[in-house]
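Structure first, sequence second, as always.
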């Protein structure tokens, strides 16, 4: 055992204990009130702060209610059209003090043109602090102290950022990698030279070629891209598994999408299991981390420069397309209920205010402020009242994997018309031949078990479930076709009509070829 590694782990454990004790002394709602006051003070002299009377909000008896009263809710289009377009044109002090020099390009999984999300110096600072807290939390997991001296492979977007008129723009992971925190710089791989390669295929080829030169203990990224990277390394060096190249690989820090569909694929590439840690880093801020091994839920960061509001995800607050209704109910952390789904509104040190980020979460342990991500506000199926969430879909797919002992790393589903009724059309990505009828039966039965609305509609208007199994690489070819290989890009679990037609045409062409 390395003495240096043991010292680092001991220091990380001490940091985690101090952080935990601090969190136990202060209730989550108190952290949130302090965070809101800090945000309001920092931004009160911006154009946004003056327009919405932040000084009056700060001087009110109940700043949270005053904040809700003065400031409307925003989605990306409304805040960009009214405020952020000025920030992009380098007007200072719009929604946050100073000029914004970095913008994260994000289209989520909607397929829309890239959004420009402001990344301020304060947001960088909070993101870095959350990363350090995750490093501290690793001391709770069963890892050898030597792992703390090993390299960290961070697979993200290119660090060769687009240059605009006074600003840089790129994938958030590429922006973060272009300016890693001081404590990470000596461990960061693949290094700036390789990370700056814009072509995904060329970047992965260089990583595969140079992989034996690094003593990697951690891999960090979105599971789908990490799996493709490891497959390329194994293929390039003609070895049996990734541990033949990186014998000390022990930890995978993942995020962005539900990990379970990738677990079997990962395990086939390993000589031994890894420690997995989930994270919730959005372009708008570092939202949550998994900080204990007993659960796969993540701890919502109440004191990391983000003020949260929780919107019950129901028909009262959202229309059929997943858009916020004009008059909505929002809750604070002390008002939420375990087991209910909420859409997140965030106010951040990046200059987002009451901003709908598009994700839905569910509290699994309110006392610990622990959540799971359940889906997207616009990525759920309710063509006839079945209210099928991405979390339901993930559980259904995981059930099929377990029952048939197969790997299904990718899938997508859409509602289609069948005469005067409806059907759900599933495309499932898997590289082995399978009994489609068996998959359909297992998937349908599981969804009926976990979702009463789905079960009721399957007996009436939702007459059919269709399943087509296709090679998993077609999903990745679609990413390439869309110019979205690597980085934080994720495949949409639910597709709407026009995009689904394009997808089906793409599948037909690639199956023929």
């Amino acid at each position: 055992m390395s003495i240096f590694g043991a010292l680092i782990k001991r220091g990380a454990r001490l940091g985690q204990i101090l952080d935990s004790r601090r969190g136990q002394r202060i209730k989550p709602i108190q952290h949130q009130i302090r965070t809101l006051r800090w945000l309001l003070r920092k931004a009160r002299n911006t154009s946004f702060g003056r327009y919405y009377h932040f000084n009056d909000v700060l001087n009110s008896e109940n700043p949270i209610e005053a904040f809700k009263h003065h400031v409307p809710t925003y989605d990306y289009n409304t805040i960009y059209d009214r405020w952020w377009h000025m920030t992009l044109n380098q007007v200072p002090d719009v929604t946050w003090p100073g000029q914004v020099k970095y913008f994260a390009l994000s289209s989520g999984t909607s397929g829309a043109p890239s959004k420009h999300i402001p990344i301020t110096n304060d947001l960088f600072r909070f993101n870095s602090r959350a990363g350090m807290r995750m490093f501290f939390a690793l001391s709770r997991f069963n890892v050898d102290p030597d792992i703390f001296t090993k390299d960290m492979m961070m697979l993200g977007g290119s660090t060769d950022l687009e240059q605009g008129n006074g600003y840089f723009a790129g994938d958030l992971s590429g922006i973060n990698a272009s300016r890693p925190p001081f404590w990470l710089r000596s461990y960061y791989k693949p290094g700036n030279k390789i990370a700056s390669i814009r072509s995904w295929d060329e970047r992965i080829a260089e990583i595969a070629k140079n992989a034996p030169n690094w003593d990697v203990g951690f891999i960090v990224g979105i599971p789908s891209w990490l799996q493709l990277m490891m497959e390329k390394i194994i293929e390039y060096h003609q070895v049996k598994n990734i541990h033949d190249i990186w014998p000390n690989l022990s930890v995978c820090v993942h995020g962005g999408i539900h990990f379970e569909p990738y677990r079997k694929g990962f395990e086939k590439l390993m000589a031994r299991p890894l420690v997995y840690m989930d994270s919730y880093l959005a372009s708008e801020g570092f939202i949550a981390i998994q900080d204990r091994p007993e659960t796969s839920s993540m701890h919502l960061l109440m004191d990391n420069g983000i003020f949260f509001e929780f919107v019950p995800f129901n028909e009262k607050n959202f229309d059929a397309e997943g858009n916020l209704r004009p008059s909505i109910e929002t809750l604070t952390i002390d008002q939420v209920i375990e087991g209910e789904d909420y859409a997140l509104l965030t106010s951040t040190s990046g200059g987002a205010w009451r901003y709908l980020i598009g994700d839905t979460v569910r509290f699994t342990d309110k006392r610990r402020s622990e959540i799971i991500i359940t889906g997207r506000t616009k990525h759920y199926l309710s063509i006839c009242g079945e209210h099928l969430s991405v979390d339901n879909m993930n559980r259904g797919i995981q059930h099929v994997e377990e029952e048939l002992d197969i790997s299904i790393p990718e899938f997508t589903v859409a509602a289609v018309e069948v005469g005067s009724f409806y059907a759900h059309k599933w495309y499932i990505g898997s590289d082995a031949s399978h009994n489609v009828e068996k998959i359909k039966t297992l998937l349908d039965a599981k969804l009926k078990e976990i979702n009463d609305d789905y079960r009721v509609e399957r007996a009436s208007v939702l007459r059919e479930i269709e399943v087509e199994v296709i090679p998993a690489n077609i999903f990745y070819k679609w990413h390439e076709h869309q110019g979205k290989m690597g980085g934080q890009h994720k495949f949409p679990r639910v597709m709407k009509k026009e995009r689904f037609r394009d997808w089906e045409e793409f599948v037909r062409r690639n199956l023929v070829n």
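Margin note: Residues 3-9, 108-112 have pLDDT under 50 and may be disordered.
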